[in-house]
Specification:
Bound molecules: calcium ion
Largest sheet of chain A: 7 strands, parallel
Number of domains of chain A: 3
Oligomer: homodimer
Low-confidence stretches of chain A: 20-37
Structural class of chain A: alpha/beta
């Protein structure tokens, strides 16, 4: 019942209704019917911003509005053909969705020919890294400045002679004390810190604490599954005699790691060893028809080769979860997803909100009206693959295939969970123009539309807007994304890495009481 | 009934009981009674770590143990004279404390002579700054890296020709999206950001956003009480065309502010214009008998001259709140404090904890057993002054005298609230050895004991441990703190400023749901 404006359309514009069935959201908008055109047409009743929706036919109050073949909401006012359809006349559809388990399974077939390979760093625990970083992990905010000062010593040309070392990054955060150690909030923080410590993209790990915080530095690394070839060192500011002494000693300890780390070489590994994190931020009305389904094609390709792809952002699955449960490999996996959504309903209510009103101001400005519309577009990132497993935030990912991790939609928190779980490459789709990066894992940014791509050329790796421009097909862009994943996993720098973005985006999910 | 070991004491040590009444916590420990000594003595039954307590007399199970003349808990096991008194034999005392309002008021008399002055930056709104910084405020985590990259351009010698400009600091944080805008959590974040934007220590303020976040950049500054002479500039990464363009433009905008900011001069102002933030971190058994009461003397001195001193850290007031309510200037003010404590009981319970078990592992290692003991020592920072007002977190402080702000005890979150409220100088006492700093406000660190002071000489401004060493009196150290406050407010650098600590410690209180 609705179409999406591919460019701003003025009131009075005549629209041809020569749409192919099944793609009504991609209309050749704005062309004025010529003499002799047999196509029916409608006239826009108001200005339609780019990527916003307009009605193709009248809709009565409480009438269901569909997109992607699914309900995106109910009309809250009478809608005429040619009307702008948005928050003023479209509301939430609270009707129960049928949650079937495993009724829509798909056997993905890998393309013929050999399994593609990438050049990665094989690690002692069998995982394969895509970067070779030294991390400076902090147990508490109190050691953040010391960690930054240590990392500063390796800026500029300090690593020039160690070409196989990608960098030294400080993993600072704002928590680590004033928590009840047994609480969910504290346990989540610890799991996240430990997941980073064990990540295959860290060849070396210096852990810096203050000395009187909630968890001792050794408890972040000892016995927590770090690869045996991770060079680990721990220290406390109180034990070293202060910030200045800590920085001096920390720099020396990392310098001592560098020759060994630099001797490590990239080696070919099958793409089945990759763990791909899926994410989106600043979504708009194009996300669900360009970048997200193109990423879904790349994700399915990776899964067909035996690789792992991780969907996340639970609040943005709300309203589309029935599409995932029907793809679950078992009722247990489907139920786990529903259980997480139940938890989120309570968590959102605590915050005075509800999952219904999730689209952010930026999403709404981009033409997304309801969480149903946003979610239907968001799950397109996960392609058609079966859902193999559901993980808690920052849990270590061990299954192959398409899996789900429970995270907020908020970008840095979501991707931090994925990386803690082991993601070695991330693809991030954005409509409004995100500048996200996420060291130590490279993050490929895909624009959903050409306007954003052209406006922020330094911050976008790929332009999926060509799909609506008519200059590339969904399949072509999907293949481009898949091929870029392999190149980036093999060492090609993403734009965020070139810009130096990705250290501040380490944001463990913080919840619970701070005393 | 208990004494504190001023140094580690071995089992079997004989202790003279030649204590003066009223100061039983400061004992001349470890001296063996000589021949002819008339004093009674006791023998330690076990090793007593430095700053831990031992019993001076037997205490039966459920017997009340006193320190500072107040109950610090009930014996949970029979305690013999000479026993170590700690978590194994001392538990919480849940008896109701009598909450009287205004029954213990004190008229503080200023010393004779003129009101002391400091050299500060008078601002257009009548407040007086103690530093002259440019801030780069971020509306959301997405602009954190851009803000850091802008600040990086002013490192090293870049400000050499602007000697009246103290620095350019990035105010980055981990939130700003995924919040319900009307929720307490979101409102608290916004109030904190606005408080920093309006702080008298910022002569210039560049606000950097992404462009699609919860709150537009202008909403952080426009109409929010910034001094008219704050040079304000706002920008969005999406509007500027990406991170690289934003950094270039942001650096140019700050460069353009510098000549005007550098023309500002320090001028004498009465100390009554200072807003002193009180805080402690990594407390130990000495905190309550050395640094905290010395700071209380300095605080009372400031209040006697008409200045403002702000106590905070609500969870660390629990159990000593009756000492504050009895000093409240009105029943309404006293009741506000009790209401905040009630709120905290619920908040702590949500986190699976309770205020009773607040002493952190570091506190406990330092000899603090119960929250009552910790709190009785903590409120000593606030001297004897009447309690004039109670503020919510990050609320602008407008009253004179001793006031209270509701914050967690967690150091960076607490001090961030105080600075958002307008604190222009902070004194921070520490037992275990904190390395805290808090730009743009100078933070003076006072060690509670000489061991910490000598172990971390680069990180401590002052040693209150001399009080138990016998080389300085409480009054002398209180006067030293007061005089250092004036020198530091006038521009003398604290050790944390020399080390470059204080940017990572901008940590707005984060609570509520993140979607
Ligand atoms: Ca259709
Ligand atoms: Ca997201
Ligand atoms: Ca006494
Ligand atoms: Ca504190
Ligand atoms: Ca930071």
């Amino acid at each position: 019942e609705v179409a999406i404006a591919l460019r701003p359309l003025a009131a009075g514009t005549m629209i041809e209704l020569d749409l192919e069935p099944g793609i009504e959201t991609v209309t050749q908008s704005g062309s004025v019917p010529g003499a002799g055109s047999a196509a029916p047409f409608l006239v826009l009743t108001g200005d339609i911003p780019r990527s916003h929706k307009f009605a193709l036919a009248p809709i009565a109050v409480d009438g269901r509005v569909h997109k992607y073949g699914q309900s995106i909401g109910l009309a809250t006012a009478p809608i005429a053909a040619g009307d702008h359809v948005h928050s003023h006349n479209l509301g939430m559809d609270d009707a129960d969705r049928a949650h079937e388990f495993g009724t829509q399974r798909t056997a993905l077939v890998a393309p013929t020919g050999p399994v593609p390979t990438f050049l990665g760093y094989p690690r002692a625990d069998g995982r394969v890294g895509t970067r070779n970083y030294v991390g400076i992990l902090t147990s508490v905010n109190c050691s953040a400045t010391a960690a930054n000062l240590i990392a500063d010593a390796f800026r500029g040309g300090a690593l020039d002679e160690f070409e196989n070392v990608d960098g030294v990054m400080a993993l600072t955060h704002q928590s680590g004390c004033g928590l009840v150690p047994t609480s969910d909030g504290a346990q989540t923080l610890m799991r996240t810190l430990r997941g980073y410590a064990a990540h295959p993209n860290f060849g070396g790990m210096l852990v810096v604490g203050l000395g009187c915080e909630m968890v001792p530095v050794d408890a972040l690394v000892a016995g927590h599954g770090l690869p045996a070839d991770t060079i680990v060192s721990t220290m406390n500011i109180q034990g070293e005699g202060g910030v200045r002494a800590t920085v001096k000693e920390g720099v020396a300890r990392i310098r001592a790691m560098l020759p060994e780390l630099n001797s490590r070489q990239r080696e070919p590994a099958p793409v089945s060893e990759l763990i791909l994190g899926l994410n989106c931020g600043g979504s708009d009305g194009f996300s669900g028809i360009t970048a997200n389904p193109a990423l879904g094609i790349a994700s399915d390709r990776l899964v067909s080769y035996g690789g792992t792809s991780v969907l996340a952002e639970t609040p943005e699955v709300f309203g589309a979860e029935h599409l995932l449960t029907s793809r679950a490999v078992s009722a247990a996996v489907g139920q786990q997803l529903l259980d997480r959504l139940d938890w989120w309903q309570g968590y959102a209510a605590q915050g005075g909100g509800s999952l219904d009103n999730n689209p952010s101001p930026g999403n709404k400005a981009g033409g997304l009206t309801t969480i149903l519309e946003k979610s239907l577009g968001a799950v397109a990132k996960a392609g058609q693959a079966d859902l193999a497993a559901v993980y808690g935030y920052a849990e270590k990912i061990t299954d192959r295939g398409l899996v789900f991790m429970d995270t907020p939609g908020y970008d840095p928190v979501s991707v931090t969970g994925l990386i803690a779980g082991g993601a070695t490459v991330v693809v991030f789709t954005t409509g409004r123009g995100s500048v996200f990066g996420a060291k130590p894992t490279p993050s490929i940014k895909v624009a959903t539309n050409s306007e954003t791509y052209n406006r922020m050329p330094d911050d976008m790796d790929l332009n999926a807007g060509r799909i609506v421009d008519g200059t590339a097909t969904l399949d072509e862009v999907g293949t481009e994304i898949f091929e870029m994943i392999i190149r980036v996993a093999s060492g090609e720098q993403t734009v965020s890495e070139e810009l130096g973005v990705g250290q501040e985006e380490f944001v463990p999910w913080q919840f619970g009481t701070v005393t």
